[in-house]
Amino acid sequence: MSRIDVSSGESPQDLERMKSRMPPPLPCLVAVLAGVGLDHWLPWSIGPRPFTLTAGAAALLAMAVLGTATFRAFQRHATPLDPSYETVAIIETGPFRYSRNPAYIGFILLQAAIACFLDNAWILVFIIPAVVAIQQLVVLREEAYLAAKFGDVYLRYKARVRRWI
After folding, report:
1. Angle CA(130)–CA(46)–CA(39) in degrees, nearest 5?
2. Taken in order 83, 98, 70, 130, is the CA torsion positive or negative?
3. Measured between alpha carbons, how far is residue 82 from residues 1, 57, 69, 102, 159 in Å?
4. 78 Cβ contact list (under 8 Å, min separation 6)
5. How many angstroms separate the CA atoms of 162 and 2, rounded?
C-alpha cells in the first residue's frame, strides 16, 4: 500500500473534478434491465437449465469470493470503496495484485450470474457494452485521478498490474 499526498501539484479541486460521477454498478444494472426488457419481446435462452443454474452459481460464487477479498483489502488499507470519495491509498495486495479493478470484475460476474439464473442471453451479450461503459466513463477518469494524485507510485503499479484480468 502506498500513501502519498498530491504529488503532481494538482489542487484538491482539480483532483475532485477528475473523478467519475457515475456509480460503477450503473452500466451493469442498465444492461440487466435492457436484457430483461428485450427478452420479453424477443426471448433468447442461454441453454439447458442445469447448465445455466450451474454456471450462474459458479459466477455468483466467484463474485462473492472476489467481492469479499476486495472489500477486505479496502478496509485493511482504510480507503473508501466508493470511487467518488477521496482515495487515500493505492492498494497493491489481495485481488489488486492481479487486477486494478477487481470490484468492477465482481459487477460483471454478478451480471453473468443474473443472466444465467434468468436464462437470458441478452443480459450476457450486454456484458460487452457494460464493460465498455465502465471503462470509458469510470475507469479512465479514475486512472487519470490516481496518476495525478499518486504520481510515479500509481504509474509503477499501473505498469505492473493489468486493468482487468
Report:
1. 65
2. positive
3. 18, 26, 16, 13, 24
4. 88, 89
5. 18
Decide: helix, strand or coil at residue 90. strand
Tell me the C-alpha distance between 161 and 96, whole Å.
Answer: 8
Q: What are phi and psi of 91, to 5 degrees?
A: -90, 125
What pTM value is reported for the model? Answer: 0.90
Q: Where do the H-state alpha helices sit in the chain?
A: 12-18, 26-41, 49-76, 102-118, 121-125, 127-134, 140-150, 152-160
* 123 grid coordinates: 443480459
3 state SS of 2: strand
Phi-psi region of 93 (alpha: psi -120 to 50; beta: other; left: phi over 0): beta
The Cα–Cα gap between 78 and 146 comes to: 16
pLDDT tens for each residue of the chain, 165 residues long: 444 344 445 666 666 666 777 899 999 999 999 999 999 999 999 999 999 999 999 999 999 999 999 999 999 999 999 888 889 999 999 999 999 999 999 999 999 999 999 999 999 999 999 999 999 999 999 999 999 999 999 999 999 999 999
